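Researcher: First entry.
Model:
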Amino acid sequence: MKKIYLIILLTPFLMACNPGEKDGKSNYSVQLVTLDPGHFHAALVQKTMYDNVDSVVHIYAPESNDLKLHLDRVDAFNKRKENPTHWKGEIYTGDDYFETMLEEKKGNIVVLAGNNRKKTEYILKSLENGFNVLADKPMVINSESFEKLKKAFETAKQKNLVLYDIMTERFEITSELQRELSMIPEIFGTLEKGTVDDPAVVMKSEHNFYKYVSGNVVVRPTWFMDASQQGEGIVDVTTHLVDLVQWASFPEQSLDYNKDITIDSAKRWPTLMTNSQFKTITKQDYVPSHFEKQNDTTIKVWSNGQIDYTIKGVHAMVYVRWDYQTPGSVDTHYSLMRGSTANLVIEQGVEQQYKPALYIEALKNDVAYEKILMEHIKKIQEKYPGVEVKGVARPGRTAQAWEVVIPDKYKEGHESHFARVTENYLNYFKNHNMPAWEVPNMLAKYYTTTKALEIALKNK
């Protein structure tokens, strides 16, 4: 049964003044289509408005609680007091929602953030039918899907379409500055090679199942804890970490996953979640019977993983862990880049009050080094006005150390990064100027995660 209706109407004044509508048709160059939005990231793409993007978003999805939660989140953005958005949704909820989307072609960019078991097929068929695609991570959750993703990128190239994934962590200011500093030989030196036991690049991420987004506790779909649908931790959140390793260690360089990447080892392990915790975050009164059980009151959620690998001769390690709720109740990030002159470290623990902080750790006591550092920070300030450094004690870890002092104006937060990614994507869509290294590096990233999963499953 076809169900189409408008949600979240604009005020009459705004509706009358909408310059992009004439005779019921849009004059905007971008019309968004949201497909099967099961993850809150789909709504975060709409936390702001964008130039030359139609306020009407066409949504195709099965009738479900996932859809209701998505609409509620967008509705909250429209109704907030400060900088409210004015999105309107036109929704189709028939069983043939995907086929109908492909047939009707009511937009030109498909936004995907939901059940990952279906995502790669959604991506490929959308491209084959002429849609551009902006997809939340991960695009793939296993090696079989990786083969489809390769075909998807080939299709995008043939049809001159833009396929891109949402890598929000590149816009975290400490990650941006870590990358900037690593490209200054006088400060960082050159990237070390490291070893398997002492990697040169380390990325760690710790996450909460119970967390707040936009001031509210996130309601998780039941399938979010199902590795066959969400993907295991080693191919899910780890995508961000592998991306940061590539982006920071080899800036603007194209990678060839057939030649440049070797997986040394990989492992996975579950988070134990009680039935009560599961019911709390899903707002469901049952636990699906197909979940692997630890015992009668606890299930196993395969959300944790570690990959040790070599990329262009550099030893790297990525690690992701999920808890139901950590002591700080916030997701945290750790990053280490080891240089021949200094290490660049991001920490976000108790000492940092669970807020990310970036440190420069010189390897030798050198009076001249601080003068050189200050001269180059002046160049950093041309791009990031207000950024400074201050000396700090890092007992037992370094000879000299400085913390990068970052003004609050740069600390946007994870939710705001979705707008930054979307704005970048819209620029690529408009100007056809996506950097040449992005596609090969997306393939390298998903090869790394899916190959690591293969290895980890063999070692169970």
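Researcher: Second entry.
Model:
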Amino acid sequence: MLNVILYTYEGCEACDEVRHELQRLQAEYPHRLYEVDVTHQDAFHNHRARLPMIEIGHYHLEAPFSLEALQITLRAAWEQAQKAGSKPFSPHEVSRADRILFSFSRHYVLVLNLILTLYVGVPFLAPLLMKAGLTLPARMIYAFYAPFCHQLAFRSWFLFGEQAYYPLEAARIPGVKTFEAISGLRQVSDPWSPERLQARAFVGNEQVGYKVALCERDVAIYGSMLLFGLLFARFRNRLRPLPLLWWVVLGLLPIGLDGFSQLFSQYSFAWLSSFLPYRESTPFLRTLTGFLFGFLTAWVIFPALEPSMRETERLFLRKFALSGK
């Protein structure tokens, strides 16, 4: 016996005609009809014009199609099944993992946005907790993020202090207190000095404020990814995939130039020192390049996931229909 899957939606008059025709053909081509209401399913949100949709084995029909085409397709599927040999129908088992994956495929944008919100938001709890005198949970947050970020104080944002940031003297930003001035550390610009580790461990105090647990660039990267994720949740049907060339030129190249020129200039490579003098990036450049990289990276990732998530949703709808659940 054939399995026929009919994808419908509320108020679909053509679906009623197809359903009536299938009932008429039941005696000639015995089949089980499984209906899937996709009124509220994202997988078919932009494909209403393709409904009703029919799946019969390997055969597939999308609207608009005639009742004659439906009969021809049903006959072809029936003849193919007879040649292959009739096999007893066994329902498709639906596991908890199936339900979880189906739910993720439907709500993956929400899930990813929640993850990004937590990842970029929790580091701001650390200075809040320090300000409130809850040093133990604050230190736990700093410790958790330490493997993922250098947490250098002179490249991080500060809350509740005199300034939002305290750059190195080498950054040459006029009118601000430098990290050397507030910490008393003088050799921080040397990446091999013990003071470098002290700069990483420095979380602040009541006067200068308390450090965010992610550096300026990482806050910009993950914050801009979250921003795009929120825009994608609202305008996903209007946002086209970003060409990779744009991502390379506008996203990867600026952050690479800013980061690697700083890195190579500070680690005293003799062959570079003659034409690449020591430089320390600024909060503005770290934030700008981080924002561009994060936003454009998310613009590549989210639209790339969308087709596979919609296909996964459709496949699970089919499996649930055949299972009768």
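Model: Note on the second entry: Residues 283-323 form the longest helix (41 residues).
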